[in-house]
TrEMBL record:
GO terms for molecular function: aminoglycoside N-acetyltransferase activity. The lineage of its organism: Bacteria, Bacillati, Actinomycetota, Actinomycetes, Kitasatosporales. This is N-acetyltransferase domain-containing protein. Homohexamer; trimer of dimers. Acetyl-CoA binds at V87, T88, V89, R95, R96, G97, L98, L99, T100. Pfam families: Acetyltransf_17 (PF17668), Acetyltransf_9 (PF13527), SCP2_2 (PF13530).
Length: 418
């Protein structure tokens, strides 16, 4: 048996890709082997230096991958992000510090590259806080009880002069990217998608052993502009009394105007046979319940943390976003990894712009870099974190002032799983 310290953590070479994929499947409790065509398709995501593996006696026992991403912040600017994914440690090698070693390598490289933050969607809540990540967005799924929603059962299309059409995967690949660009430019927490994302999501490349083609619908406003799009599936469920009891599941729904969102949700709730609509992961303040005459017909099925953020550069992160009030705040940011900590003065002006610089003198608030990440996109409250003892007020009233500056009227949302 190899000694524990002999496990080598390093970027994989292309020839190790198949072994690395096998370890990834094992870590995610999926069937270990992959068809050659899926393996070949997945090679498109291989970027030299950014897929890490741990090797013990020549066998890959841990995986980690990062890729370049743009993240939209409050006010609509974007920052370069190091998106972390495919994190696994094989059960035989767990709790020996392999994730810690891979994370340290990746975050150090991201900092050197000039990324402002790292991002990820956490499989389990307790994993990533220790590395300076904080939950920066959350997501909610609703299940709509259609017969109780109070919608007009004779609904035959949008009332606003727009229209809804079924389209094919090829149309989604043509129309989707521009629509998503419009959405993400105005949605703090949204991230960029590359062309491969559209090809995977529409089944143009086989990335997974099974792909079930969904239905795709497009909403065009009265002027013909595409303003919304959704993908959904439906099950096959009949009740004992020969009643259709089908559930429609939304895979994703993009609307760039409230009218588009309204039309798409009403469409989904109007499909004959469908008695339940599962919304998929939405922003926690999504308008969906209030498009229904009886909002209680939309019951929250799940509500949880979603995208986690690790701030790598406090000055650039705080200067990238805008602020809801004018004011000045000195933050003492602790970072046990030594990547981003320090004392910083944030000055926000009445036009919303922020200026941030390292500061001397006394701090108003002391907080860990993970708590700053939770506050950064406006979703968390400093007053709440202070009540939990996770933010310390060095000056009375500083947490309330931080909320006035940082919190936003709509909540951040990341529509993607990555
Ligand atoms: C972005 C994504 O890809 S999310 C997907 C994450 N992957 C998974 O959930 C797949 C299944 N799980 C795994 O593969 C592994 O358990 C991992 C990757 C989560 C952790 O890998 P490990 O190598 O065991 O972690 P490592 O030994 O570095 O642990 C460091 C610390 O985190 C703690 N920790 C690690 N994983 C967990 C967890 N799931 N829950 C609670 N604590 C954890 C360890 O106990 C350790 O704490 P300590 O420093 O106080 O002793």
């Amino acid at each position: 048996m190899t000694s524990r310290t002999a496990v080598d953590v390093r970027p994989i070479t292309e020839s190790e890709f198949a072994d690395w994929q096998r370890a990834l499947n094992v870590g995610f409790l999926r069937e270990p082997g992959l068809d050659q065509d899926i393996l070949d398709a997945r090679r498109a995501q291989f970027t030299p230096g950014r897929s890490l593996g741990a090797f013990d006696a020549g066998r890959c026992v841990a995986t980690f991958r990062s890729f370049a991403q743009e993240l939209t912040v409050v006010g609509g600017a974007t920052v370069p992000a190091d998106a972390v994914t495919n994190v696994t440690v094989t059960a035989t090698h767990r709790r020996r510090g392999l994730l810690t070693r891979m994370m340290a390598q990746d975050l150090t490289a991201a900092k050197e590259r000039g990324d402002v933050v790292a991002t990820l969607i956490a499989a389990e809540y307790p994993i990533y806080g220790r590395y300076g990540f904080g939950p920066a967005t959350s997501a909610t799924e609703w299940t709509v009880d259609v017969p109780r929603a109070g919608l007009d059962p004779r609904w035959a299309g949008p009332e606003d002069g727009g229209r809804i059409d079924l389209v094919d995967a090829e149309d989604v690949r043509k129309l989707g990217p521009e629509l998503h660009e419009r959405l993400r430019r105005g949605q703090p927490g949204a991230v960029s998608r590359d062309e491969l994302w559209w090809r995977i999501t529409t089944g143009a490349v086989r990335f997974h052993p099974t792909f079930h083609e969904p239905y795709y619908v497009v909403y065009r406003a009265a002027d013909g502009r595409v303003e919304g799009m959704a993908a959904y599936t439906a099950d096959d469920n009949w009740g004992d009394a020969k009643q259709p009891l089908n559930t429609a599941r939304v895979k994703w729904l993009t609307g760039v105007t409230p009218a588009a969102e309204r039309a798409l949700w009403h469409f989904l709730c109007s499909i004959d046979w469908v008695v339940k609509v599962r919304s998929g992961w939405r922003a926690p303040d999504d308008l969906l319940p209030h498009f229904l005459p009886d909002p209680r017909a939309a019951a929250v099925t799940t509500h949880a943390d979603w995208m986690w953020v690790r701030i790598l550069d406090v000055v650039r992160a705080l200067e990238a976003r805008t602020y809801g009030a004018a004011g000045e705040l000195v933050l003492e940011v602790t970072d046990r990894a030594g990547l981003a900590g320090g004392r910083f003065r944030l000055g926000a002006s009445a036009d919303g712009a922020g200026v941030c610089a390292p500061a001397a003198g006394s701090a108003d608030l002391t907080l860990d870099v993970a708590e700053l990440a939770a506050l950064w996109l406006g979703d968390e409250s400093a007053v709440r974190l202070a009540a939990l003892g996770r933010v310390r007020e060095e000056r009375a009233g500083a947490a309330r002032q931080a909320d006035a500056l940082l919190r936003t009227s709509r909540r951040p949302w990341c529509p993607d799983v990555f």
